[in-house]
Structure prediction request, 267 residues.
Amino acid sequence: MPELPEVETVARQLAPLVAGRVIRGVQIHDPKLRQVARERLTGGTIESVRRIGKQVVLQLRQGRGVRRWLVIHLRMTGRLIWRAAPARCERSHLRLRLRLDGGSLCFYDLRRFGTVQVLDRPDGAATAGLDPTSPAFTARALEELLRGGRGQLKPWLLRQDRLVGLGNIYCSEILFEAGLAPHRAVGTLTDEEVARLHRTTRAVLRRAIRHCGTTFSDFQDAQGLTGSYQRYLKVYGREGQPCPRCCGPVRREQQQRSTFFCPRCQR
DNA sequence: ACCCTCCTGTCA
DNA sequence: TGACAGGAGGGT
Prediction:
């Protein structure tokens, strides 16, 4: 579930469910996460759940003003699910379980690419890139980021050190909305195109967040997310289907990862 | 800019 | 059996 809108959805759904709860125990089911068990999280209170980039950040208060941050990156297949007390936890692909008063916060991750860190400082979770949903993300800011940039537009957008939160789905969608070809050289964008890219980035993300993101293989967990933005995808995963604008076939290009676009509408 | 790798699963 | 999957770090 891991692009910005999905992670935002997870954080928003989780916050009211776990904020204020105390960690009573930590269970590790994946040797990769062993170090988390050594961090003595037990006794800490979850103060807040937020999204930073594509990460979910739980702020913990350990007592006497000591704060720590549990930073979870879901990568490709990570899921965070709250199980209220009487409910049993599904065990398959369960990697980490935080026993809280009143229930459990379960981290599932089929492919085990996800990461969990415990930090003493919140800025450890900070990413170098600008969050495209923040007020600081203006057309002007985007233009400055793009200035002097090299290479193609889509790989540029995928990197997390300039803008955070965009991944393979939303890059394709945003570029389609903006009418920009994925392989356009970054340096060749006109002011008007930059403005369009800025506008569509905000619009696509806002809309996706409103629909709780995109869910493909729809797990129907009680508290898991069931996003519906997949209904609104215009090019992603639609190779050969008609472009919503010109009705020509959507093209897919595969280098390392698939890119979907309309060669006629995107220049 | 292009590879591969970390994993496990599903689908053609 | 091989291709591919929402991410990202590493190497060349």
